[in-house]
Amino acid sequence: MKIGKVHNWKKVLTQLLLLALPTFALAAYVLWDVNNYYAILQNNWLKQSVYVGAGMAGALLFYSYRFRFITTAALLFLVYYTGYRFVGQVSVGEFDAFFASVHYLVFVILFSSGWICGYGFSRSRYFTVFWSLFLLAAQIVTTSKTADITANALIGALLPVIAYAAYIIYTAELIRNMTDSQESFGWFIVKRMTGFIVIMTLILLAVFAIFDKDFKAIEKKWANNEGKYDRKKNGGESMTQQNKDGSISNKDKTQLSGSLNKGKRLVFVARLDNYFEDGVTPNPLYFTAFHYTKFDTLTQTFETDSLMPANDLFKPDPSKIPIYFAKTDSTVIRNTNATLHRKVVNAEIYKTLLAPNEYVAPSTAFFCQPLPVENAYREQYKSAYRAKMWVSDLNSAYFIYNPAGNASLESFQETRFNLLREVKDFATVDNKFLKYYTYMPDNAEYRRIGDLAKEITKDAVTPVDKIIAIRDYFLSKDEFGQPLYKYTDNPGVPGIPSANKLNYFLFENRQGYCAYYAGATLFLLRALGIPSRVTAGFLTIDRSSKNPGWYWFYEDQAHAWVQVYFPGYGWIDFDTTVPDQNTHDAPQPDGTPPLNMQQAYLVADGNIVTLDTLRKKATMTVEKLLFHDENYQTEHPGTIDIDASIANVTTDTGAIRFGQLKKGMHITAASFAEALKDDKPLPTEELQDILKRLPKPTPVDEIKVIEPEQPISDASKQKLDDNTSVNWLRVLYISLLVILCLAIIVGSLPWLIWQFLHQRARLTKAPVSKAFYQYRAAMYYLHQLGYARTNLGPGDYAGKIDRQFHTRFYDYSNIYQKLKYSTLPLTAREQAEVAQFYVPFIKTIRKQTPLKTRVARFLDVYQTIHFFTQPK
Q: Per the UniProt record, which residue ranges are transmembrane (predicted)?
């Protein structure tokens, strides 16, 4: 017996080209992305995509005939099982069998997915709707786990899926409505697809253009996970952020979140030349990255402020400074207004994951000198720099970290507290400065924090005693002898949306991470009129007994604490965060610090003039020169011939080949050559004199390419300076406007469809197409007015309409059925009937239907949906 067909060859070919092919492309992209995260898939995304495509193509061809899904699925399962047994028999060895079975299982899952997809495209009208919703939900989940919550990331991740969903639903319905006698098959498809693409493009561009600012505002509110590196974690805040190149940067803001993500990777290693009075015992210091002096109450975010008074933050870009040359800023020392118990301390920072442009150092840094990394350590350390700081003798990681009952540390702290007790008030502090650093919002929630501050410090007299009282409050115990406050990375969120998280932390759950303790301490102090600010960077933990003065900094040491201003002493670090034993008791770092760095006798900075890549020689201009640590500069650059045959060539991101250098590049060349060791400069010599007596060519050991700084566009500046909070009232208005627009569009959809069909019926010239559109428009108009054809044949339905409205619909219906199912041409009378039927018919129906009824019926979207979902 011959098996009947469900679809003709035109429809099957259209399904393959317009449904299966785009879905195959989407599957290939998804599988490529998934293969990047699951090693067991062995990065065979192309082969896996073919499995999906083969399943879809096979199902579309197979189900174009009248086969039942359940029966064929059972047979397919039997084939799978037979194949599985065969794989088990031919595989040799336990591991071979395992990987073969995994590969076979991947094939089964992907081929079956494609098969089900192909069946849905072929037989199910509603499959594309459920399929699109599934893809959209899956993409939302995937994006939340693997992407940064930014406007660009959200649009980039969701736009392709939304476009695909709209495309696949529209195209599937378009193909379903194709008739076997469809004229100009290719032109039919091209016209509709072109129109759809144009309309969808315009709609999407308009939506994203109109709401771009609101996307960015929502990004600012909800981008809690921009710093995470672990793609398996979702949500939460991070004290650092991962860049596109995989490096780590400190964030210029931190939001109070319901959870904190911490990584365990090594970020940098530092040698700090700071010791106690015995000159042997290391005195660790916290490393500062940013000062947060602004608080956005709407988003509950601590932010930097470039306009803060007496800005003492030094933020150079080490990657833009030639190696061995230094950048200094003495104004930051002046802005500290600190003269008591201060000294200059040196530090060397060796970066592993820390971004090339990042600069961290203890407060207050004023000097940055990039250093080369020796060959033996290049795999571990990407770049390095030397820092100098104007440091307070009163600062110490031992001093600011909560002693948690350690008697020796408490005694150590007390000697420093006694010095600060000399400050009784802030009468001598500039009023503008004091007003800025004691500002806090004036509402009931923050007044409640102020009341708590007064209660905590009621017995304290001096500012430092008030600080100690606040610290002791966080360390106190409840009536059951349990800690009143606890450290946790997951403090939760208040039950009421947009509730004040600091109040929730202080008065309800009393659990949080460093940003909560620092933020709460900030407002407790400001409520008492004590100038303070939140500082972010890295807490320093002295875990090494092998290399005193060396410190290892991991991601989970990114931290926030408070600095308090004391007249004469400047900003002093305080940390009220209760101990986090998971971080403090981390295992000892098992690493070797980069010791015995070579001394550079010559460092030249300039641009490449000539280049011989074969002999590894070059000529460069010299504008700045370091010779035996003497600095020479000139307005009339000289030249130097260099021999780079043994030189290491690097950029900010790693080593490159000498052959990658180009004329005009800005480079710094350093030489450790013994021939220069005893060639000391004379006091009267200038740069040109030094260049004349250097060896020709001069051997160099290090070449660093200085990347040019990219100009910041106005748009980028606006983005960098965009610290405005979310205007939720405006978001509400826009949301209501969007809902209203959608309601209008949906409400007018029946009328718009009618206008489209009505105009096609009136304007189409070809007799066959004209008959089709007239019949379609007449049927839609009657259906929308409430005269559905339910369970009636074409003739019976047309006769019923004629009896009610006194029309000639029955005769026209017979002509249309003849056109549709017969190959006989229309007679002259029938052609005249087609030409004269439509307009009088619509006028007759409209005349006999009240306007009120017509308006009400054309607002009924359900009727429209029912028309397109009823059997053809």
A: 12-32, 44-62, 69-86, 98-119, 126-143, 149-172, 193-211, 731-754
Return the residue matching tokens 């005349």: 847
- Dist. CA 654–CA 352, nearest whole Å: 11
Answer for the pair 59, 7: CB distance below 8 angstroms, yes or no.
Answer: no
**Distance, CA of 175 to CA of 773 (rounded, Å):** 17
Strands 486-487 and 511-512: parallel
Q: How far is 639 from 629, CA to CA, in rounded Å?
A: 20
Distance CA 829, CA 831 (A): 5
Segment 446-456 shows an average pLDDT of 94
Residues, the chain: 872
Spatial CA neighbour of 43 closest among 54, 31, 53, 51:
31
Close Cβ partners of 102 (under 8 Å, ≥ 6 residues apart): 40
Rounded CA separation 211/223 (Å): 17
- The model's pLDDT over 490-528, given as tens digits with 9 standing for 90+, comes to 887 675 555 688 998 999 889 999 999 999 999 999 999
Q: Which of 312, 313, 293 is nearest to 303 (CA)?
A: 293
DSSP 594-628: --SPPPPSEEEEEEEEEEETTTTEEEEEEEEEEET
Lookup: tokens for 597: 């760095």
Tally Cβ neighbours within 10 Å of residue 236: 17
User: Per residue in 818-851, is it b (16+ CB within 10 Å) or e — as a string?
Assistant: bbeeeeeebeeebeebbeebbeebbeebeeebee
CB 286 within 8 A of CB 400: yes
- Which of 569, 566, 662 has its CA nearest to residue 609? 662
pLDDT at 364 over 70: yes
Residue 381: closest CA among 269, 500, 287: 269
What is the pLDDT, as a whole number, of residue 91? 53
Handedness of CA 450, 454, 488, 399 (dihedral sign): positive
Q: What is the pLDDT of residues 700-749, one digit of tens each?
A: 988 989 887 655 454 444 444 444 444 555 555 666 677 677 778 877 88
Q: Convert 534-582 into a string of H (helix), E (strand) and C (coil).
A: EEEEECCCCCCCCCCCEEEEEHHHEEEEEEEEECECEEEEECCCCCCHH
Burial of 176 from C-beta contacts in 10 A (0-12 / 13-18 / 19+): middle
Contact between residue 790 and residue 827 where contact means Cβ atoms under 8 Å apart: no
Please tell us whether the domain made up of 602-705 is placed in CATH 2.40.50: yes
Question: Is it the case that residue 267 has pLDDT exceeding 90?
Answer: yes
Q: Which of 218, 252, 222, 216 is nearest to 237 (CA)?
A: 222
Pick the closest to residue 486 from 506, 512, 516, 465 (CA basis).
512
**Domains in the chain: boundaries:** 9-219, 602-705, 729-869
96 has a pLDDT exceeding 60: no
Convert 17-72 into a string of H (helix), E (strand) and C (coil). Answer: HHHHHHHHHHHHHHHHHHHCCCHHHCCCHHHHHHHHHHHHHHHHHHCCECCCHHHH
Query: What stretches of 638-763 show up as alpha helix (H) in DSSP?
Result: 687-692, 714-720, 728-763
CB distance 23 to 120 below 8 Å? no
Tokens found for residue 2: 């011959």
What is the pTM assigned to this prediction?
A: 0.55
DSSP 8-state code for residue 658: G
